[in-house]
Amino acid sequence: VVYDSSAVGTNAPAASFLERDIALVDPRYGAVRRLAAGLRPLAYRLSPDGQSLAVAHLSGQQRGDTYRNIIDLLVVSTRTGARLATVPGIENKGMFLPFSWSPDSRSIAYRSIRVGDDGRTRGDTFVVVDQQGAQPKRIDVVDPGQETGIPAALLQPPLWSSDGKALFLLGTSRVWRANLPDAGAALLATIPGRELQYVLTARSRDGILPSDDVLVMARDTDTLSEGFLRLDSQTGRVQILFEERAHHGASPSRLVDVSAN
Known about the structure:
By secondary structure, this protein is mainly β. The chain has strands at about 1-5, 20-25, 30-40, 40-45, 50-60, 70-75, 85-90, 100, 105-115, 120-130, 135-140, 160, 165-170, 175-180, 185-190, 195-200, 215-220, 225-230, 240-245.
């Protein structure tokens, strides 16, 4: 639960309107236990085992530019509130940091969307963080490409295989696969004429693929029709399931759940 912090005073910085406390509420008894105070959380996610909470905290901005935010990724224990790990100074475009937990709750993958000096957006940095204190490791993407603006696919966090041994990374029309612990991601599939929007995952395991067959929402760049593709995460084979002249929303994965099978 996130609620306004009474600790915010009149001398708070310009971004004080974002300041919040994060707490756990026991719905049975109404007991409130504060985990962190005075943060500026842009996003937060519970680990699959419920023992840890990851928070993307807005720590600053480059030259006051709201499109060049500096974000700290914090991990706290939901049992004690202790800080387990901190990844400071992540440069990111926009008020969002795409990140996801591994199935075993030991690692976090995040994606930094940066703006180059030429004004172009680069979503080519992928990092795996071991919350036990190891240094972040960059995953280099083969032929990452460069985009203008922020394509919808760049806003989806890296996606974990169900066994946690691979990460899948979305581009505008391409998908990469990184077999961990390797530090490189190879091109898995290219879908010409389609702009990828997001991969549908179960709400309770957001960021974790339910199976080898992946449902991807995509838009036809010529007709602007939208629909779903089936992507085999092992072979890269793509099958168009259906398309129609309709808009299916920016991210219905927040509104739809998927069964385990």
